[in-house]
Amino acid sequence: MNVVKLLMHSFVTRLIIVSALLVGVAPETLGQTVPDTLAQRLKACTSCHGAQGRASTDGYYPRIAGKPQGYLLNQLKNFREGRRTFPMMNYMVGHLGDDYLIEISRYFADLHPPYAAPQRLDLAPELLERGRLLVLNGDEQRRIPACIHCHGKQMTGLAPFIPGIAGLPRDYLIAQLGAWQTGSRHAASPDCMQTISRQLSPQDVSAVSGWLSQQVIPDQGIAPQMPADAVPHLPLHCGSVPGS
Fold first, then answer.
1. Largest alpha-carbon pair distance within the chain?
2. What Rg, from alpha-carbon coordinates, does the chain have?
3. What's the rounded Cα separation, in Å, for the pair 194 and 241?
4. In terms of pLDDT, which residue wins out, 2 or 223?
């Protein structure tokens, strides 16, 4: 069996196992005796996203623990409806109803395990400074708003819809900004992140992702809650944030 076939076999095997856990297949089907609880089913998620959703160690799968529930729910729906594409995620949530997705998003939003230390990266000081300026100040001339205008001064997000971005793996940040630029990732219209991402040059993406990945998470990264009757003042209208 060649390398490609081995990789495909491994992927398919893992997909079957995690999908079976998520939909609650009888334990006998997998040859194991396990409780049919939500935590057990969501091992389908933590097999990639790390224990308690803390993030993987490979620098790609992001932390989902403690992210705002509205944001997590939006992303699950985006995967289910094809606005985001990643085969395992699309397959796993493709036939799950809204009630189940709400339950999943609430479960991970309520978890707040400690954050890992930032990745150790050897990045040029001038690259990090460029990233810092874009995150904190933006670039008005190129219509690039500062990241902190939406994601908060401490970059921990704003519940229930806006996620924290500080300390995310650099590879993940690069991949997601690239996906918005190419149109392989979408959000509800108007898609503000796609609009912003397409204003960024490759050097900007490298700088922003590098600087963000080096930031220490303050106060366990818990996003402050937006008052229920508040209207968020964002630099762009965002379909994922009602009322923006």
1. 61
2. 19
3. 14
4. 223
